[in-house]
Amino acid sequence: MNETSPAPRPEAGPGRVVLLTTSHRVAPGLLSWPAWQALRAADAVLCADGAHPQLPYLREAGIAVAEASPTAQELVDACAGGRTVVVVATGEGEPALTDGLARLAGSGRVAMPDLELLPASYDLPGARLLDLVQVMDRIRAECPWSSRQTHEGLAKYGIEEAYELVEAIEAGDRTELREELGDVLLQVVFHSRIAEEDPDAPFSIDDVAGGIVAKLIHRHPHVFGDERAETPEDVKEHWLRTKAEEKQRTSVTEGVPLGQPGLALAAKLASRTRTAGLAVPLPQGDGIGYELLALAVRAEADGVDPEAALRAAARVYRDAIRAAEGLSA
Q: Which of 101, 146, 149, 307 is most deeply buried (CB count within 10 A of its CB)?
């Protein structure tokens, strides 16, 4: 600490320690005004990590930063005489230093400087998504399994995760819901990362996000434009109109995935037909399929999701089976 300790001041006092924390998710150099004030007013600025991403920007701004890893006692000594020392925290947050300062303060034998934790930059909402993208990049490059996956090979997992998300929603399990949302998000990031490697039509997670942002803005003219919407029905009307303008479909059945579960497919077709104001009689035929079709259309008209309704009834049936087996639900 001798080479980094500032000259003592004539006035006595325990001084001040400022622990400056920054977020790696914010571009280096974008610090808060209180942070810049503390840095410029400090008698010494220390950082244990000579490769800290903030250091080039601090030095460019005329802040002298010494690379040093003081002990708690050395830091207290450096503050003697009323000095202020700013410690630019590393990514780990300097736990050894803060623990040492806590022990000194608890001993009651040391005149402690004022201690201040000063966040110099903050994460914006959604900042942890950047971590997910970076982690996915590394996994794709270094994991023997993940590096070989394709869109086709992952398709089944997307379906499984979507069903598990629905199950968590219907069960009302908040912890499970958060986890399943993460699993669904992983599928989006994983597929986007694979798409970057396509030799003919590559795209990235930024392209995916940019596309949905543009779509949401365009389909919400009552939020981002001059349109007005007072009711959910008004919003749906805006949505359907702008969607029709975008897609320019010739049939209301276009865009309905035929591979989805049968009850959901029947309900979706019925919804499209009803919304378009088409009077289409149900096809008549023998067999359970036509009966299920009629039930699904009736459920949709009544505002009931036939898939969810059947799942709920099936869970009751499962519990009855377990009860018959002498097992708890």
A: 101
